[in-house]
Amino acid sequence: MLRSTRRSTFASAVLLALTLSGAGAEPLMDPAYGPELDEFAYPFPVERYAFTSQRQPLQMAYLDVRPEKPNGRTAVLLHGKNFCAATWESQIRALTGAGYRVIAPDQIGFCKSSKPAAYQFTFRQLAENTRALLDTLGIARPILVGHSTGGMLAAHYALLYPKEVAQLVLVNPIGLEDWSAKGVPPTSVEQWYQRELKVTAASIRAYETATYYAGQWEPRYEPWVTMLAGLNAGPGKEAVAWDSALLYDMILTQPVVYRLPQIAVPTLLMIGQKDNTAIGKDLAPPEVRASLGNYPELGKAAAKAIPGAKLVEFPALGHAPQMSDPEGFNRALIAGIAAP
């Protein structure tokens, strides 16, 4: 069953974030949103897909943005761990401008979607949820674009449903190396939970500057810090932190690197070369830490492992090239999916 929710003004959220931050300065206080990002505005109307999974009613928020001049193709954008459907704003505008219909869901456990207290998070389950949404919308053989954790999800989706994916685009996907096998120590769900309870706007900003934006912070990134900080500081923060802990456990225990040779879908890898992402890297011994998250090597290895994959490298960009250089990224993306 599908239903709509009222759209609030995205510009007001941006203005609030920049006001709180002093256009780049430390915010006076962290915002606070509800467990489904209540009152944080998205740039497009939010729809909700209600369904039952693992014996409980859930709802998946998503964006469904249609072009003025359709080209008959649909792109499905899968967000990363610290991202939401809204963070694809620039890509949604570029893709719809090029004729693509765009679907951008918030996965269960993230952003504006349900935060179940008990849920077996697996990439297979998230892929099944996404497929059910697309089936409801009547979408067949979309182009899957996955970033970070969404890249892992997109890869698993393509492995599960190879005949139902027209093309696969992986943007700085994680899971291209097995961190546990390389020496990241075991971390319990309870330990992840306690770490997540301590998340603040300042810690988010510091991490994203170093990893997502290659050391270059810009005020335009502030709304996305506000989004995450408010989700982690609101009245549902324990539920948010718990699901986040379960998701970190999923990421660390289900690397996709071993299955890359089995991907049978035309694949485009888009890799920011200054990315150094490795979940749990800060917990590893220094000698192990230094060897993790080498995306220039990981991207080339993935391109070699996936049959027929094409690789686009962004030399000056980090983990989020689509946000650091949206115009350059969008040009490369649209060019990369233009061919049948």
Automatic annotation (TrEMBL):
Highest taxon above the source species: Bacteria
Q: Where is the signal peptide?
A: 1-25
* AB hydrolase-1 domain segment(s): 76-278
Report the record's Gene Ontology biological process terms. Answer: acylglycerol catabolic process
The record ties this protein, via InterPro entries, to: AB_hydrolase_1, AB_hydrolase_fold, AB_hydrolase_sf, Epox_hydrolase-like
Do you know which Pfam families this protein is assigned to? Abhydrolase_1
Q: Name one GO cellular component term.
A: membrane
Q: Which UniProt keywords apply?
A: Signal
Q: Which GO terms describe its molecular function?
A: monoacylglycerol lipase activity
Name recorded for this polypeptide: Pimeloyl-ACP methyl ester carboxylesterase
Species: Methylobacterium pseudosasicola
Lineage of the native species? Bacteria, Pseudomonadati, Pseudomonadota, Alphaproteobacteria, Hyphomicrobiales
